Amino acid sequence: MKYYHGSPASGLKVLKPFLSNHKKKYVYLTTNEVVALFYTVKTDWYTYGFDKETGLPVFTEYYKDELKDLYNNKVGYIYEVDSESISKNPTNISCAVVVEHDIQIYSETKINIKNDKIIEVDEYWGDDGPAPQWRMNKHIGRPIKKEGYK
User: Fold this and answer.
1) Domain of 33, in residue numbers
2) Considering its fold, how many domains does the chain have in total?
3) pLDDT tens digits, residue range 80-95?
């Protein structure tokens, strides 16, 4: 299953558990890419919830232009992971899950917001080198041989 993690940090290859307000070290993930987008900036609070009828994420401004203040002229990153070892959900966020160990990233999406608009979305996939363990476990992909390379 695909899970997402939002962060203001670029270039991560592995997500590592950290101590948060749940008094235990976790990597926080979500099944909802929009929720991950909320976490691409660092703040002390994230003022979103979910529409009762549709279940879609909804950002609620606690003050005028809060969304603009938090996200305008910022670059954030959404990391995609695949894990079958999800441990639990200690949060009150229905689409959130956690793992208690390092987890390999297999894609990074850069989100650039300027003048209240997303102006750039770039995806980066794994580097050359050995496949991550999760791909090997699922027997995904095959080696690519290029002419002139040994």
Assistant:
1) 2-138
2) 1
3) 987 666 667 767 777 8
